[in-house]
Amino acid sequence: MKTIDCRKMTCPMPVVTVKKALEESPGQALTVLLDDGPPRENVARFAVNRGFTIEETPLDDGYAILISGSAGEAIAIRKEKGGETVMLIASDMLGEGSEELGRLLLKNFVNTLVEVAETPDRMLFVNTGVFLTTEGSEVLEALEKLGNRGVEIASCGVCLDFFNLRDKLRSGTVTNMFTIAESLLKARSVIRL
Amino acid sequence: MINDGDYVAVFNNVHRVMKAEKILKEKRLNILLIPAPRALKSDCGLAIRYCLADRPVIEALLGEAGLLPEEIYRKQGEEFIRIDAPGA
């Protein structure tokens, strides 16, 4: 059985790491070492919401969570059927026409994603979309919640550089065009905003 | 997006909620434009979230601007408790 140590990681990295490990070894039980508090709570919630069984054991330093159950098979089947749902956010607006309305609609859309049961597997932010993942964005709280539910959030590095925002990234990771292209091509469905 | 004890001001008009958000943001108040919770009826589906500490100043500013929300609620557990808007 695999064990991964997610102690000393800040949210949402524990959930992101656990999600990746479960996808790499579907059907296999996994032990995760976590700090108490939000990392432990978020990973436990993520696993239970996805149908896994969890068993928590206190350690001298943190907690061990054993994640097992048939949900691993569901992940395997889903992977075989062809990949993820990827959301491409290519602008800081939703729709065309009024810019003011477009920005409000996109903000409201991301905040609404938190309230619905279905989430994308990955959200890729390109061009002015990176304004949503960087300092001053009004959806950082929503992105943090989505990250804690296992949604991978990634921003285009070239776009961050173009807008001088690389050191202002506040949600998710920096990605490149290879990863973006592969994610889109391997996806089961792509939702472009 | 709504924590226990948060206040939710529901507006029934997109122009009113956009104006209200602008005024409150200009004053650097800690508010968030959110989708109106499904449990609450709203024509435009938008609401503004704020906390108890900011409530007096927020509602005073909205009152001065003639932008008092149609309804105000407080999240309590899983429920939304209707609160009367000031001057209502």
Write the SSE topology.
The complex is a heterodimer of chains A (about 190) and B (about 90).
Chain A: E1 2-5, H1 13-24, E2 30-34, H2 38-49, E3 53-59, E4 62-68, H3 71-82, E5 85-89, H4 99-113, E6 122-125, H5 140-148, E7 152-156, H6 157-162, E8 173-175, H7 177-186, E9 189-192
Parallel strand pairs in A: 1-2, 5-6, 5-9, 6-7, 7-8
Antiparallel strand pairs in A: 2-4, 3-4
Chain B: E1 7-11, H1 14-26, E2 32-35, E3 46-50, H2 55-64, E4 71-76, E5 79-83
Antiparallel strand pairs in B: 1-3, 1-4, 2-3, 4-5
Task: Please characterize this protein's 3D structure.
The complex is a heterodimer of chains A (193) and B (88). Chain A is an alpha/beta fold and 193 residues long. Chain A has two domains: 2-78, TusA-like domain (Translation Initiation Factor IF3, 2-Layer Sandwich); 83-192, Hypothetical Protein Ychn, Chain: A (3-Layer(aba) Sandwich), CATH 3.40.1260. Chain A contains seven helices and nine strands; from the N terminus they run E-H-E-H-E-E-H-E-H-E-H-E-H-E-H-E. Chain A has a five-stranded parallel beta sheet. In chain A, strands 1-2-4-3 form a four-stranded mixed beta sheet, with helices on one face. Chain B has two helices and five strands; from the N terminus they run E-H-E-E-H-E-E. Chain B has helices at 14-26, 55-64, and strands at 7-11, 32-35, 46-50, 71-76, 79-83. Chain A binds chain B through residues 100-101, 104, 107-108, 111-112, 114-115, 138, 141-142, 145, and chain B through 1, 14, 18, 32-35, 37-38, 45-46.
Number of DSSP E strands of chain A: 9
Q: Helices and strands of chain B: which structural class? A: alpha+beta
Shape of chain A: globular
Task: Output the CATH homologous superfamily of chain B.
Answer: Hypothetical protein rpa1041
Strand count, sense and closure of the main sheet of chain B? 5 strands, antiparallel
Would you list the SSEs of chain B in sequence order as H and E?
EHEEHEE
Distance between the termini of chain B: 27 Å
SS-based structural class of chain A? Answer: alpha/beta
Overall form of chain B: globular
Q: What's the helical proportion of residues of chain A?
A: 25-40%
Total number of domains of chain B: 1
Average residue pLDDT of chain B: 90
Mean pLDDT of chain A: 90
What string gives the helices and strands of chain A in order?
EHEHEEHEHEHEHEHE
Write down the oligomeric state.
Answer: heterodimer
Query: What would CATH call the homologous superfamily of the largest domain in chain A?
Result: DsrEFH-like
* Low-confidence blocks of residues of chain A: none
